[in-house]
Amino acid sequence: MMEILYKSTRGNGETVTASQAILQGLAADGGLYVPTEIPALDIPMDRLAGMDYRGVAYEVMSRFFTDFTEDELRKCIDSAYDAKFDTEEIAPIREADGMYFLELFHGATIAFKDMALSILPHLMTTAARKNHETKDIVILTATSGDTGKAALAGFADVPGTKIIVFYPKDGVSPIQEKQMVTQKGENTHVVAIKGNFDDAQTGVKNIFNDAVFADRLAKAGYRLSSANSINIGRLIPQVAYYVYGCAQLLKKGRLVHGETLDVTVPTGNFGNILAAYYAKQMGAPIGRLICASNENKVLYDFFATGIYDRNRDFILTSSPSMDILISSNLERLIYRIAGDSEEKTRELMKELSTEGSYTVTDEMRKKISDFYGGYATEEETAGTIRALYEKTGYVLDTHTAVAACVCQKYRKENGNGRKNMVVSTASPFKFTRSVMTALNPDHEKLTDFEMIDELSRIAGVRVPRAIEDIRTAPVRHTTVAEADKMAEAVEAFLGI
Ligand SMILES: *Cc1c(COP(=O)(O)O)cnc(C)c1O
User: Fold this and answer.
1) Residue 141 CB–ligand 1 contact under 6 Å
2) Is ligand 1 within 6 A of the CB of residue 201?
3) What is the CATH number of the domain that holds 321?
4) Which of 83, 139, 96, 91 is closest to 111 using CA atoms?
5) How far, in Å, CA of 93 to CA of 101, rounded?
6) How buried is 78 (Cβ within 10 angstroms: 0-12 exposed, 13-18 middle, 19+ buried)?
7) What is the C-alpha separation between 66 and 133, in angstroms, rounded?
8) Which pTM was predicted?
9) What is the mean pLDDT of the chain?
10) Quick check: CB of 143 below 6 Å from ligand 1?
11) Does residue 171 lie within any of the structural domains?
12) pLDDT digit string (tens) for 205-214?
């Protein structure tokens, strides 16, 4: 098998192995690791159609993580995609109103972040062993709500690791917050910051880029890594479910050989849709990549104009995990469409941090014609939840509803008959308040848990274990910090 190495989008061309990139998280120069090339999916789709989720995941990940042995990788996969998921299929497909919803919320924390974060701790501890790392790994994570809980659940009590999660105090749903602050595990720490997600993400990146701080940590026996989608160990596992989704549709006869389908992805940090792009580049039968935004529609504007401009108000919406103005993973796409140019990427990212905006060339724009940007307003999102429920009885969460709305608009405007796989990123039980009031404003007066029981009744779906677990769980984390005091919070937790 061809060896795949990784290099930084802002580096000097130096390469590292997959396991080194996973351990490192973010490159020392502030760039993101990208594979030197996208490997081909050199196995026919009908063979993949006969495999279960773990089988497909192995075929995809082994093409990218070439310095892991088969045994190492299969062990990681088997430990990740097991009974923590509430269905054998791991990522089942549900058809409703002519759309195929790829449900990625059947893991421990009922959001799609589980798809990658249930395997990342295993990849990381394996990578540490392979590279003879003796220091404890400290995972720093900024979260818009879902990554935090999924990373905490994944790393809780994993020997040799500690995890610190930063979330925006007023920027997550009540259920998301409750899930995080009740997290067990002696190695876990949760900090609410006074700021928004971009502040949290920038704070984490600043800590990563602080060489003096890294040195002090190293002397105390720690090294930093990341569980955000800037880590390639999170991105690559996400490629697997796109391939699996296509293979399952073939198996079910919903897709025929040679037919491609579009995918619609509710997007924030651009990790999920970038994984779809990688899947397409590998050879999965994907047509258009439809990038769905909420009212924070930076990406919609970018695809429409070629200008990325974060100079605008940050809007708190009912889909908080997509309330992001700086989509980190877009840098990986920029690097690719700039012809793998570190220099061009550095230049544009510098403009983003100094001016808050940058413009790509026409030549670069041509290379992203596979992408299509759309967005849904708050009203449209709520309307989509209500309409789909009334028509089919299927209840979407707010993030998935943004995607479903954009998918329907795209089909109406473009009138192609191509099938569409809408990525369903969270269970409606995670955003119950927004979902229930979208269904009926009278629900407003119910408490969070009354809403949960009512949702279970009207949708005919059992309350997920992740929700039952927090009904009575005690709060364990109460730290609140200023956004510019995140490094101090790290020191306090580590006792250095
Ligand atoms: C994180 C998240 C998203 C956005 O995914 P990105 O990879 O950041 O684009 C969408 N929906 C939900 C529910 C999420 O948790």
Assistant:
1) no
2) no
3) 3.40.50.1100
4) 91
5) 5
6) middle
7) 19
8) 0.94
9) 95
10) no
11) no
12) 899 889 999 9
Q: pLDDT by residue (tens digit) across 280-305?
A: 999 999 999 999 999 999 999 999 99
Best substitution site from 173, 267, 397 to test ligand 1's pocket, by max atoms within 8 Å of Cβ? 267
Q: Does the annotation count 130 as an active-site position?
A: no
Rounded to an integer, the average pLDDT of 253-265 is 96
Q: What is the pLDDT of residue 8?
A: 97
What are residue 170's phi and psi, to 5 degrees?
Answer: -105, 20
In a domain, 482, yes or no: no
Inter-residue contact 20 to 13 (CB < 8 Å): no
Going from the Cα of 273 to the center of ligand 1, the distance in angstroms, rounded, reads 9
Beta strands in 10-148 (DSSP E): 15-16, 33-35, 93-96, 99-103, 136-142
pLDDT tier at 317 (50, 70, 90 boundaries)? very high
CB atoms within 10 A of CB 440: 12
- What span, in angstroms and rounded, lies between the C-alpha atoms of 218 and 225? 12
Number of domains the chain contains: 1
Judged on CB neighbours under 10 Å (0-12, 13-18, 19+), 473 is middle
- Phi, psi values for residue 189, rounded to 5°: -145, 135
Catalytic one among 7, 113, 149, 162? Answer: 113
| Predicted local confidence at residue 475, as pLDDT | 95
Best residue among 32, 146, 278, 297 to mutate for probing ligand 1's pocket (most ligand atoms within 8 Å of CB) is 146
Asked, for residue 325, whether it belongs to a domain, the answer is: yes
399 in contact with ligand 1, CB cutoff 6 A: yes
The bridge status of strand 286-293 relative to strand 261-266 is: parallel
Instruction: Give the residue ranges of DSSP H helices in 188-305.
Output: 197-208, 211-219, 232-251, 271-282, 298-305
Is 111 close to ligand 1, i.e. is its CB under 6 Å away? yes
pLDDT greater than 80 at residue 415: no
Does ligand 1 come within 6 angstroms of the Cβ of 432? no
Instruction: Let me know if residue 20 belongs to a domain.
Output: no
Q: How far is CA 57 from CA 61, 78, 86, 109, 272, in A?
A: 6, 10, 18, 20, 16
Question: In Å, how far from its chain's centre is CA 91?
Answer: 15
What does the pLDDT read at residue 1? 72
For residues 87 and 106, the answer to whether their CB atoms sit within 8 Å is yes
pLDDT tens profile 180-192: 999 999 999 999 9
Q: Give the domain extent around 319.
A: 93-110+233-462
Ligand 1 center to 229 CA (angstroms): 10
DSSP state of 485: G
CA 381 to CA 396: how far, in whole Å? 10
